[in-house]
Every structure is written in structure tokens, then in C-alpha cells.
Records
---
Amino acid sequence: MRRFAPLALSLSLSARSCVVPPLVLSLTALALGATPALAAPALSPAAAATEAAHDAAMEGYLYFYPLVTMDLTRRQFTHPSQGAQGAPANTFLHQRALPRPGAATPWANPDMLRSTAWLDLTAGPVVLSAPDSHGRLYTLTLLDMWNEAFATLGKRSTGTARGNTAIVPPGWTGTLPSGMPRIDAPTAYVWAKNLIQADSPADYPAVNALQDGFTVTPLAQWNLPPQSQRVKADPSLDLKISVREQVESMPTDAFFTYAAELLRKNPPHATDQPVLAKLRRVGLIPGRPFDFDKQDHPVKQGLRRGLRAARDRMQAAAGITLGGVNGWQRETASAGVYGNAYLRRALSAQAQPGAGLPEDLAVLLLAADSQGRPLEGAHRYTLHFASGQLPPARAMWSLAAYDSQGMPVANPLDRYALGDRDPLQYNADGSLDVIISHAAPEPGAQANWLPVAATGPVTVLLRAYAPAAALLDGLWTPPAAVRDEPAPEPQPQAEPAPAATSAASPAPAAPAATAPAAGTPPAGTPRATPAAKKP
């Protein structure tokens, strides 16, 4: 998935401007004696070369950003010195337990156990074997080196029965075993990311056994005894610096030289012709190495400026495709498949390389309450799902709470997610109230309680697996989080003023009145009813 963080809500209003036809503006300018604008002078050959290289580098950086990011991610993961943090090519690394405080990565999924492998197709196809999950939900996403999800296996697409599927590299024309399904990979390396449903620690034995049933076998070794792999260490690879930091600190010459080398091994998509034509004019040609030092000085200058402009553009555009309603944030642009939206694809690789398809998993982030205030652990909130308005998920849904660092928070119930697999208590009309707070609610409402940290920012993620069309199309929105406010203190009432008397004829003496008890409103004033607490 892309990475989520608490986002402040902001609204801006812009006035509609009156549009005047260009002809009217031109005639008005001439009537006032204005001189018509002259055409810009032609650029010198050197300036034209610099501008062309600037444009090519700006678009080329966005185009190549996912490719460079994915390759560094692959190389770090498969490096022998990674130990338990990685695995050799064509081997799955399994997460064996659900996230817990002190043993989790930021924004970890509390519903699924994860398995990851990098498939190496440079020597030919591999066979991806899946066990029979007996109906248990799993989604295995295959991504190419351009950060595009090109296939998924699992309950939503291929089913949960046992099977073997050949993953074939570009241009391969060999023969597969009879009846074996074939998936053509766009690139010679493929990232396989698997999620398997796990409801609780009691599920671990069954789910861990399923994880072990997912294997990768080179086609050349199919039906042969397993053979040990020869793993070569890459001494030039930096394992301490994050992939993102390495990519965004690369000098211009190093970035485009690296990208050109990767382009020789990882074919571009068929629709990439326009950007490839632009890159060709500055010496970046598919299938050929790129030598920055052989470029003319104006081209070098333009490439450097274009790369800086692309980085500025990514920084300015980060988060602009997030839409918000009721305090919830959701990604409104495409995810998993991007086509020629190179900026969008680069931003996805920057935030969370390897994002899957929204048809498999949709994630929404609760960033603010019903009044636009950021969620805080010191307060109690209620999410009221009206009858028939629960998250529209065909598989399952859950709510998970995180602290300011994206980590689960220790709590007395050992509960880090709440969803439709839990024994929730519904109201008589079929609606559901979910309580988000640090302090435990009354005993009758604890079935619907999502615990959070005592203080500091709080973030809640809603995950919907196999979301229905209403959610994918933006026609369904989660309810706002309403913060419980303390009941107002009763205000003391002023004493009534004594009645005026006439000086000419004194008024008869009135019977002694009994003063109202302190704090009691005068007769006729509606009594304040304490705010009822929701379960």
C-alpha cells in the first residue's frame, strides 16, 4: 500500500472570474494604444539544447524514478547480509505473527500475515505454486519493475484451490508443462507480495503452514530435486541508507546512467513511446548505455536543471490527490496501475513502492473529527454507522488505531483492530456505534471499543478487503468521528428584583416568600437534561 500519515484538513474558496473573449481583449488593448506583443526571439542553439535537455530530464526523472527505486529495493532485499530481513531470489520471506506493540513496522496490517519474494526471470520462467487455502482469503500481487501491478492470484481472481502458475519473462518462447497457466511478466524481475488472512494468534499454525505452501521453482528445475542457490554479494550496494534517500540524493549523471542500464534489462511499456522519443534526443536510448560525460555542456546543464525541477515538482505534488470528507482521507487517483501518469506513479513509488490494486484492498484514513480537529488520545470519539451503512466490503473490513509513529498501542484487551469478524454489539435498529478512546467504556460497550494511546495524536485506518463498487466509486463515505464533550455546568440564577411600591399609598404587606434552593432554576425554566452516553 501508499504510506499514510495524519493530514490536517484545509478548505479554500476561490471566486469565479469573469472570462472575457480574447478578441475583445485584443480590440480593447489596440483602442488604448497598446503595442501588440512580439514573438519571442529565437533561442541560440546552445540555449535550445539546454531547454530540450531540461524538459527531457524533468519528465525522464519521473519516468525512471519507480524503476530505480524498485531495483534498489530488490537488491537490498536479496543481499546475503540481510539475514532474516531479506531472502534470496525466488524465495519467500514470511511474517509469522500479527503486529504488536514493540514488534511492528509503521502502519502494519493487523488482519493479514505478509509474505514477500523477488522473482528472478533472467534465466527463464519460474513456477509459482499456491496451496489450497480452503476458502481463506489471500491476495498475491505481482508487480513489475515499473511499480505496476500486472497480475493477482487469490480468492478474488483465481480462487483458493491448489495450483501452479508459470511466470514468464519478456520474449520467452519455450514450452510449458501441459495445462499449466501462464502469466507474462513485463520485466525480468517481479515483486511477489502475498497477504493471508489471520484472525488471531490461534490462527498462526494454520496460516504459517499455508505460507510454507507458497513456493517458487525455476522451470528448469520443475519436478527435479531442489538445488541450492549460489548467492553473490554486491559490495557496491549501500544497505544502511534507505532506498528513498539514495534515489533522491543521486547526482544527475549517476541517476540517468543507472536508469539507462536498467532500461536495457527491463523493457518499457508499449505506451511509453512519447517519453522515450524525448529521451532519445539527449542520448537516453533503450538498449544502449548512457555516457553523461560525452554530452555537450548545454545538455549537461539542462539535465541537471531538469532533474532538480522534477524533484521540486514531486515535493509540491505530494498528497494533492487525497480527497477528504467527514474527516476521512482517501486516495482519489489511480493506484497499482498508472498508465502514462508518470508523476502519479513516481509519487506512489516514493511513498510506498509495491502498492496493490484497490479492488483487493481499499484503505481510508481518519485524520480529524466531525469539527475538523485532529484526533487526540485524551478524548473519546464515537463512529455511528447507520443501519445498512457498514463498510461495503465483500470479504471483510477492520478499523485499526495507531499512535503518532504509526505503531499499535498496548491496551488491556490486547486489541489492535476491530471489525466484522469480532462479536460487535449492534443497536436495536441495526446501527453500530464504535468507541475510540483510551479509557475503557462502560462494560456493556467494550465489545465495540477500539483502544488508543492516552495522549498525543491518534490515527485510525479503515481497511476494506474486496471493497464493493460503492466504496471504489466514492459513493460511500464513513461517518464522522464525534468527540464526546462534557456536559455544561449549570449556571446559578439571579435573585428576582423586589417589586416597586407607590409613595402615595403603601402597598399591603406581601406574605413571606420562600427563596429557591441554591442552583435550582426558577419555575418555568426547562431543566437541563444530562447528555446521554452512547454505549
Note: The first strand starts at residue 93 and ends at 94.
---
Amino acid sequence: MRIIDFLEHSPAFSNGDAQFIDINNDLSLNYREMFDIAQHVAVQLKEKGVQEQDVIATYAPNSIATYCCIFAISEIGAIWLPLNVRNTFEANLKLLKKSNARLLFVDLDILDANHQLVEQYKDENCLPFTGKEIAGIDIQNFKNKFIKEAEEKLIRENDPELISLFPTGGTTGDSKLAEWSYLTWQSMVSIQIELMPEPDITPSYLVSAPMTHAAGVASFAPILQGSNIIVMEGMIPDVILSIIEKYKITHLFLPPTAIYMLLAYKGVKNYDYSSLRYFWYAAAPMSVEKLKEAIDVFGPVMVQTYGQAESPMVCTFLSAKDHVDAVGMDDFYKIRSCGKIAPQIEVVILDDDANILPLGKEGEIAVKGDLLMRCYFNDPEATNEIRVNGWQKTGDVGVFDNEGYLTIVDRKRDMIISGGFNVYPGEIEQLIWGHPSIKDCCVIGIPDEKWGEQVTAVVELKDPNDKLDTQEIIALCKQKLGSVKSPKEILIWNELPRSPVGKVLKKEVRKYFWDKVGRKI
């Protein structure tokens, strides 16, 4: 199995109905044209001496040209390494070195701004491209010119074992590289299609969040189903919302922070969202109040999954019906959950001695199944640290209810120990998120002589000019959660630090306070 098989085995490959449409570069390709260009680029890779299982990176904004590169890498059995343009250049350079990447597809503007890439990669191993041209091909005008040459030169011998290297979030340190085998990819796409079947209207999937991460990974199931793939770069609310209306988008994936941005846009209710069937969110918990608002604005189409780079995307599923039912019954627990266990995978809760815990008991979430990564690339020690008795530990603390819904309590490492009590920030953040003036928040423990760690909330406002009554929020937390779990202080920052995929970087917030005392706990 190769990623390009999702394209070639799609019904749209033969019927020609669906298109890849690039908004920023004003061009489009049908599935067969996409395949033909990818084949030609694959020939050029072979001519450069690239072998099966060499690592090839893509470092470029969202575009259908980037899809061409991904399919070409797949065609020759090489290993794809996606680099996020929203990472710092230094972080991506570390990933390139860590992966021993043989060759780099890089956007021309990125290359011009970062000449260190030329120093690391000789000209023949650094392939610049633009949104409209790749490997000497004018994408829009390409018409089956190289099919015969490609078919003669691209002879598959074996299906590759390793398909891609996927960078982990790096929220606690440098990113690791998760090895995704053909089993990982097959399972992920199969589970996704089972959970989100083809809609009752022509499918159209929007890629607006970085295609190097969940939004792009999630596109290959719609590709296999024969969906239109609409590609854009940038998170501009009015552009995203107008594209949903114009192209009758049925599927899209966005992280919660991007959804908050759409909801904060004053004209959000001025568009037609009737085509939407799956508005998929994941990557971080979502405020219950904002989730209710999203259902009110976009309709009964919100779906949630849970996963991580080590067990990608679809370990659990909270369906659109689950969302509607939970809101209708004001079932706070269910709407806060990430759903039930997905098919083809096992999920349990473990105690600190790796014993499986019963329903209702909090512990570390662990997973098992073909969906899992093979291992961390060149890091057996890190792999062994998260594997126990056939299970892979996630680092997340969770609990199952009696109906089988899994709620993530918090990251295990984010737990605050205040006055000898264990405090999980997640439930505090959920309460604070509900305040109408707050865009986002982060609850951490900061140094305190009396408590060891003082529970503290750092918030970002929707409107920086708002006057927030912090004592009112503290009083609400005491009323709902008790004094132990209530913030002793609420600080207002202009902007919270975020990762390239929109997650709040608690390590950076913590660092601001803990560096002053010269310790970390």
C-alpha cells in the first residue's frame, strides 16, 4: 500500500468528476491529471538516485503542488516527512537532520528566505517549487505529456513497509518522529470512512489548516471516496466561510482555536452552511460553551475524534448525534467527552502499575491496534518508555463512564500539586472558557512557598479593550469546583503562546514563572 493508491483506487480516478482546486494559486486538476504529474515527478526522483525507503521532506504551504510531491514520494516507495511552515525554521532544520532526509521539496519563497537549506542540501537534493510549477511542469497546462515515459520507468517491486515520519507535537521538548507504516495508514483511512461515511450530496473536503498535520492527513479518506479537494492557505475567517458556501463544502477539519476564530468573526451568521455534514475538530479540548455556539451556527454537524502522532486521529469518536443529544439534554459530561472507542482499536485506562482500571476510575489512557505507529524513528528508548504489556501509553489522563464515553481529564504532565492535592487544569479551563469575554485560557501551577504550586489562570481576551472582573471568575470557580481547584490569581496576557497547530504551549507559560526561581517543580 502507498499513499498514491488512495488516489488511483478512487472512483474519481476513472470518472473524472472530482477536482483538486487550489484557491490561492487559481488552478485545478482532476484525479487523473494529479496522478500523471505525480508520476512524472516520481521519474525525476528516480533519476536523482532516490531509493525506496529514503526519506523525502516537503516544506511548503498548502497547495495542490504539494499534493503532487506527496504522491510522487509515495509512488517510488520513499518515506514522506511533512514539515509545517508554521514551525520555526530552526525546528524544521532539526527534523530534517533527525530524519536523515535524502531530499527536500521546498517552496521557493521559503528557500529564498533560508539559505541554510542550500548549505545542508546540494542543489540536486533541494527541489524548489511554487504553487503553479513543479519539476519543470506548468501544472495547469500539463496534459498527459509524460505518461508513457513514466509507466516505463516506474516499476514497483515491493510495497514499502514505512510510509511516513510524522513529527510529534513537541509541547514538552523537541519533536520526535513517529513511524507510520502501511498498517497505520490503512487503519486510519478505513476507520475514518467507517465513522464518517460518504455524505448524501457530492462530497467536498476543505483543507485550510496546515496539510502537513491533521487537516491534510484527514483528506486521504475523502480522496479515496472521490471527493472534491479544495485547498487554501491561511486562516482568514471570511475566506473560509465564503468557500464553505461557494464550494458546498461537506467535510473540513479545524483545531478548536481556529473554530473560536470563526465564531468570533462578526459576520459568521451571514453564510450558508447547509452543505456541511462533518465539521471535524480534534487536537485539543474544546470549550463546552463554544461548542454549543458552533452547533447553533454551523448546524448539527460537529464531530470529534481523539488521537496523537503515535496513534493518529481516530482512537475515539463523538458523533454529530452525540453532540446534539448531549446539548439537548444538557449532558455536560458527554459533550465534554471525546466519544466512544473507534472500531479496529482498543482503548483502556491504566493505573501507575499498568493494571487495567474499571469504568469510572481515572488513569492513563492506553491504546492497542494496527493504527499505532511502528515506533519512534531511531529512538528505541523513547519507544520503550511508552510501551507496556502490549499497550501504548498516551500520557493523557482519562476516565470512561458507564456508557463507554471517554473523557480526557488532562495531560498527565500538566497535573498541578497544590497543598498536597492533585489538581487537573482541564476542568478549570472548561469553566473559564465559558466566560463570554475570554478567547482562550491556560491553567498552570506557579511557584508558591505555602502551596508548593499555586493554581493560576492566564487568559487571552476576545477584545483586548474589555474590562474583565477576575474576582468574579475566581468566585465562580470556588462555587463550582471548590477552593482547592480555584485559581488564586487570574492574569491577562495579550496573546497566549501557541504551537504551529494552534495548541497553547503550557511549557512556555510555565517557563515564564518557573525560570524566575531556577527550578521546574
Note: The radius of gyration is 23 Å.
---
Amino acid sequence: MSSAEKNQSSDHSTRREFLKTGSVAAIAGTLASGLNHGVHAAGSDIVRIGLLGCGGRGKGAARQALNADPANRLVAVGDAFADLIDPGLKILREANLESQIDVKDDHKFSGFDAYKKVIDAVDVVLLATPPRFRPEQLAYAVEKGVHAFVEKPIAVDAPGVRSVQETCQLAEKKGLSIVSGLCWRYDNEMRATFDEIHKGTAGEITSMRCSYNTGELWRRDRQPAWSDMENQVRNWMYYTWLSGDFINEQHIHSIDKMAWAMQDEYPIKATGTGGRIVRTDKQFGHVYDHFAVEYVYKNGVRAFSRCRQQNGTARDVTDHIYGTAGIVDVFKHKITGYNGKKIWRYKGKKNNMYQTEHNELFASIKNGTPINNGYYMSMSTMMAILGRMVAYSGQEITMEKALNSQQDLTDVARSSRLVTSRRKIEAAVVNIQKALAKGTSESKWSEFLNISELEHASSHIDQAKKAKNLFNNTLKKLGGRSEYPDTSVPAEKLIELNKSIKEYVDISNSKPLIQDSSDFEWGDLDFPAVAIPGVKKYV
């Protein structure tokens, strides 16, 4: 069976094992509701497409989706930021796709909950938002019976990976197509090369080496009006809770090819190292700028992975598979014997792998032969996450422990926000205390403010709630006065403290997973490098 056929098959061995490990009861319960979401818009051959994420990859996916079939229509667009939507649509229209774009103003959605509104309006959704949001977006799409193109990586932590695995198992049962953005698996030259590897043309695999050493990527300068949260989401690649670090966001392409060579058998453990020695400025968040990881397979094969994002350094984006009969130069699509003699080289047609992904996705939908890339897109993401975990911790970690980790990076980020928020409360209390110490009329504040309560406001959520209520009442009492009882305490200090306490309470009460823009504001978010947990937090 060729690589192309395996990509579309729903019953090769890894996929069968994939289904066996699923939550069958949960799937059966969901299926009971029936498959009632139509593939096409009523009464026509038109396939309604929705785009989530108007960045470069999102616009590229939309262009390829529309080019895949003249009957495809882009009808809904969503992004966390409204200002990205119209410029993205303008670029698509300028790509000679005007006749296939039918996005009305009431189908342009922004905010964290935009994904629900887009998915509710379409037959196929293109998921190209930051990876952190992929699991819940894909879950909602499959719940609603919507096919999906899913950009890589599919998650940033093990709970996200497990969620996507369960979702893809359900998609399999519902007959929905799930196509991965791991694009090399749709490249003609790569498919032929890996077919030769699997046929044994290079002999049995003994070791593998992959490298993704490149320069720095884009970054958006922070604007004065942006909060920490908005800055991080707009520059999501530099924050682990949003991207999974660049070993996950970028190097996954190389890691996935090693998994492909091993016919989607994954390593049993890994060790590694990494750090940030060039890209250390605060504007680059807290992700590393280099990794080196050694993966070990059950049969003794070792895979050596390295990646780097540093300007002014040697570039090396290559993959090599070493077999008992020869060496596979993956990017040159050739196999050479150890004596230097050519064994095999690809001579067939080239293709645009990005376009092929969408051609095959929409053909599978129209032909009723669904593609499900769920297994390898989940496990290759997990392999990248394992690499990050061993590099961050300096420990050897097994794939089993990594995959069963309970570490939710969104909870880590939320915990860090609480720490930052508590510090703001403490600082505001100190400022008021200093102002009171300079004045002579502290007693005038007694009816409005009990400073001893504020000193403990950050120690426990109950005290914080009590302090919040205290200040709400204080502001009401002072709201009608032309001057405050003690001019040594400016009104803005009181308002600042009130805001800090409210923020602390809101963060404490927020859900671990950001789901709705209605219950989450663009508050401050601080996730410094020192907050990255050690190995004990991962396993």
C-alpha cells in the first residue's frame, strides 16, 4: 500500500489500535444524536467553508480550499482579533477568488468564542488559530458534524493531545474527514521516498537524524493599547501555553517524518537539552531558541533531533534515515549505498503539497470516502511535546508518562496570572499605606476603608472577594463627593487597588479553558520563564 493510500485508509494497523484505545462509551453516546449535518448547502453542490485564524497559514489554507473545487464557497471567518479579518479577506479576493468568497458582515466573528459561530454556519472548517485552541475547536466541529482541515500542531500539552485523539475517534465513527496540516505527507516526492523506506530499499532502519536549524520568525511589535494577554495571543509563537514552543510548532515537520519512516510507531522514551542564549529579550516571550533531543524506540533505533531559531547561524533543514543497505536523503529523495552507489532516486511528477491536502480532503467529502489523519497528527504532536518536556526538565521521560501527563499549560498560565495579580494587590496596598502615613487624617478613612483587611486580601480567595465587595461599596460612597476625605490618598490609587482585586477574583473564578469571550476580558497575563514547571509537574 502506498503512502498516499495509507493517508486515506481508515483501517491500517495503527488506526485500528487508535480506535481500540478510544472512549467507546462516550463516542456511542454522542452518536446516538444522529448524523444530521449536511455535507452541502441545501439544494446545491456548494460546500460551505469557514476559516478560523486569519494569519498567513489560515489565508493559505483558505486559498487552497477554494482552489480545490469551483463549488467551494468561503462563507464565514473568525479570528480572536476583528482587525485581522477584512485584510485577510482582501488578500484572498486579490488572489482571483472573488467569485468564491461570500462572507457577509454578520458572518465575520471575533473573540475566543468565534469558532462556535463559524462552525455553526459551515460544512467544512479550516482550523488555523494558535495551537492552544485546536482541541476544543476540533471537538466542537466534530460534535456538529463538520469536516475539518487541522493545522499542525494539534495541541500544546498531553491533555490537549488526548482530547484530539478522542475527537478523531468520534470523527471516524461519524464518517467525517480530518486532514492534517503535516503537509509533507501529501508531497509526491516524499510519498514515493517513504514508500521505498517501507519496502526496505535502504534495508532495516538503524538510526535517524533530523535537523531544522533556521533563523528567527516574525514578531509583531507591541502596541501601547495592548494588554499582556493581547500581546501574547498576537505573538503566540513565543509562549509555550499557546504554541507548545517551536520544537512543537515548527520542528514537528521533521519529527513527523521520523515517525513516518517508522510507519507511525512512536519512541518509548527520550532525553534532551535546550535553552535560549540569543533570543532572550522579553519581546520573545519565554520559548527556547534551540533544542537537541534523542528519541529511543522499542527495537533499539535511535532518532536524533535538533532545531534552532537563531539569526546569523548556519541553516540546515535536512532529514536522513540510515538503513542496513544505505542512507536515505529525505529532501533529495534518493537512497545511496555506503559504497557511494546510487540505489534509488525519485523521477516522477512534483506537486504542490499544500494544494494536494485540500484536493484530497474535498474529494473525500464528495466521494463519501473520509480521510482521518487523527492518529499520526496526534502522536507526532505528542512526540514533539515529549522533546520539549525532556529539554525543559533535563530528565529522561517515557512516552507513556508524557502521554498520561495531567499538565495543562493553560492552568500553568492561569496560576502565573494569579501570582502576578497578587503582586499588584500587594503593591497597591503598600502605595495606599505610604500615602496614609504621610497624611494626618487617617481616621477620616475609617468609615470607608479597613486597611488591615486589605493586607490579607491576597492570601485567600475569600479575603479577596471580601475586599472586592468592600471597595465596591467604598467607591459608591465616594462617588458623589467633590473631594475625598484625605487628599494625601489620590482617587486613582483607590481605583487601581479596586481593579487589581477584581482582576484577582476574576482570574480565580475563570475556567481553565478559555471558551467564551463573554466571560473573559483582555486582562494582564504574565507567564515568565521561571514559571516553567520542572519534571515533577509533568509526570
Note: The longest strand covers residues 205-214.
---
Amino acid sequence: MDCNAPEKGILSGLTVKLPEKYTGMPLAEALRLEGFDIDFPCGGNGRCGKCGAVLVFEDGSEKTVKICRSTLERGTVSVRIPERIILGKSDPLIGKKSERGSAGNEPLGSGKNGERPSNEAFLAVDIGTTTVEAALCTKAGKDILYPFATLNPQKKYGADVISRIAFSQTEGGLEKLSSDIRQCINGMLEKCRKAFPELDVKEVFAAGNTTMQHLFLGVSPAGIGVYPFKPEFTETKRVSGQAIGVDAEKVTVLPSADAFIGADVVAGAALAIKNDEGPAFFIDLGTNGEMVLKAGGKYYATSSAAGPCFEGANISCGTGGIPGAISRVERTGAGIELKTIWDREPQGICGSGLISLISMLLRDDVIDETGLMEEDYRIKGLLGVGGAKAFADTGLSLTRKDVREFQLAKAAIRTGIEILLERAGVSARDILRVYTAGGLGAYINAADAVATGIFPPEFETKVEVKSNTSLLGAVAAGRNPGFISEAEALASEINSFSLNDDRDFNTRFVDNMYFE
């Protein structure tokens, strides 16, 4: 079965009935008017095939279509849509965060003993390229009362920052991108106020990569997309919510270092390595791979263009970290076992699942050191859904093209690590701790990362998996005004450089595409 075929995931998806009034309208627009934003990883260009759906007409006939390229031709029609491609559904993480992560994560759990303190509160937000995570917090408390997440609604304009920057330059593009993220955050504020009506949620503290922060504030990110890659701002921004259409009195956006080392990375580095004597790495693995190395009292940083592979965009059966995403594949005494997020029916494979699958196939000699795989690999194994474990054919496959996409992404990360080590004058053996965070880094398995060549072998016993340090940085900023000053000082100390400026980059990159 073609993983991108709409039949996969339809039974666990939704059926939307569209009335005759939408005849002649683009299908994507009709669905949007009915409250369903669709994920278009390729920006709606029809290349990735991930927005497949089935139209069911009144006479019972059916038609398979790509939502991004289809117009409603006749009468009332029902649309069967895989759940994995629907944006904007907020998933509470209360009591479920540990199921999405790994041992060692700081919990983003509910208040202690169900405590619901009546005092001033704020919303901390991590504006990720793929996922927007938020947490309701009180100024005086220590717990996170209400953590939750949703896919970034801007995904329908493209999976990565480059596609968003390009769309922002089209007519009305910047306004659409800005409006989407603000409406998303307003929806989160509404949920918080309904869940905790006794709290006065006055402020929003936001962290994200530099492009996401520009789009949130309605500032053009055009300068980030072309040489010399200069953002319009990197400093802390404090504005009224009314000024930007956010339902809060005040909005604070945390400081960035430059175009590619955003507030998400600065906040993570401030939490993870600022007070670590080092040498120590902080690596944010998500849509890109930003990293900061502290050595000899100095900070060195770079961003590796891993692309959206680890978020599932360039993988045929790839998906983000949604319920039902395959998050782990491993061979045990019982055979091949599969794990999905929240033990739901398989909807696709996310970054941590992809890494574990390729690690297993390398050990089984299904993939050789060059990345060659003789044929596409069908994902089958023991799967636990609803408490019962049974053999399952997921209908999903890892293709040979997927392996090549993975090689490009992992080579980018590994090359960034090697060049950063060289710039700092230290070796992988010298590193004492490696802190990982981000959409993938918060859930990565160190052994699999080493087996697939993402990390050098010397890192395996030194990895400490953190949770969402961008979100925790926003929480820290909301509770401790001094944290922003610390982040600003750290941002000013970072020595950041482009990997393309390294004369050996191309050679290293090609070498690192091989599996060890």
C-alpha cells in the first residue's frame, strides 16, 4: 500500500459533509470554512501527496484526490480525511507527557495535588515550526497547571522556515501567517480561562526560532532568507496584546542571538549549559538542528539545515509527534515490537520512530553502510493498542528514498557537531555532557542516535535528554524577570557561524552520509 494513499488512516479519521453551496470552491478552502485546516508539508504544491482524501458523492461513487489541488465539482459531498493531516487540534498533555517522551525528561505535569491557586497567571508558549506547545502557569507557583500542544497552523503554507519566509513575501502572506499563529495562541488562552476561570491570565511569554518570532509579531522575515541573513530584530520584545491582536494585556518575546540561533535555543542553552562548567553541548533537534557548545568559558553555535525530515515532512509515511505516530521500533525476544504515541492505531512514523527503525535495519543488515536497501521495508510487528498486544501489519513502509532523506538530515547534524568541536578546539572525547531538546531531541534514544551516525560514539553515555527547554525558558521568564537578562547576556556572548563558511563542509557532509 502507498503510505500516502488516503485509504491509510481513513477509518481512524473523520468524515466531513460539505453542502452544495461549496460547489466550484477549492476543497481546501471549503474544509477551512468548516473548521478544518489541512497540513500541506509541501506548501500545497502537490508534490508530497500527503493531503490525500476520498470524496464520496451522493450517488455512492468515490474519487481519490489531493486536497491541495482539488476543486469541488458537483453537489453535496462527504470527504474522508485521515486524522493525521488535520491541523489545529489541541491535545492536552496532562498525565500523558511521559508517554511521548523518554526517561529523564522534566515533567510538564499538572499542579501538585490538583492545586488551583487563585492569583495572577500567564501563558508560556513555544512557537515551534511544526508544533506549538503552551503551559498555563501562576506567577507565584512552581507547577505547570495546564500543558498542551497543537500543530502549528502555518504548516499549511509549508513544513519549514524557508517555505514560510517565501510565502510571507507573497501578497497578503505575512498577514495570513501572523494571523494564524495569533489565533492559535488566542485559542490556547481561551482554553486556559475555561479550565481555570479563577485565574487572571494577563501575560504571554513566547520563545521560538527567529523566523517564528518575526511572524508572530507581524515583522517580515525576508532578511533571514537571503545573504547576509539579517533579522529585523533579535532583542527582547515587549508589546501590548491589543497591538498585535493577542487576548492578553502584555506579550513578551524572548531574545535571539541571530537569524538561526533563536530564542528557543538561547533559552535552552541558558537552562542547560550556562551553569555547566563544560565542555558541554546543547543540541536542539527539530525541524533544524541548532547547537551550542560551551568550552573554555566561551559559547560556539551553529545551525545545521537538517530540513523537516525528523518532523516527518520528507518521509513518505512520516508524521509529527501526534497520537498514533510510531515512536519506537525494536527487535526483542518476542520479535519486532512497535510503540505508538498514546497507544493509538498507527498513523505514520515520527522522528524517534524513524531513527529506531533505521537503527534496527542497520543491525539486521537490511540497510548497508552506503544506505542501500534492496526493497522498501514494510513495517510490521507486535503492536499494543488499547492494552492488548497483537501482530499488526501497519500498512506503512520505509522506502529507499526515505533512507536517502534520512542520510541527508543525519549528515547535516553530524557535520555541525564536528565543525563546532573543531572551532572550539576540543574533541568528542572531551565533552562531558550532551543535553538534547526540541521536537526530536526531547525523545531521542542515544544508542540509536549513535548507531545511525547522528552523534559520534563518544556521546552515547553522555546524553541527557531534556524536555521542551524553549517552553521551560518561557516559563522561567514569566516567573523570574532576571531570566530574560541572563538570556540576553548569553545571546550576546554566542559566537555563531554558518557551516557553509567552513572550507571542509562539503567533504565532511558527504563522508557523514555513510553509516558507520
Note: The radius of gyration is 22 Å.
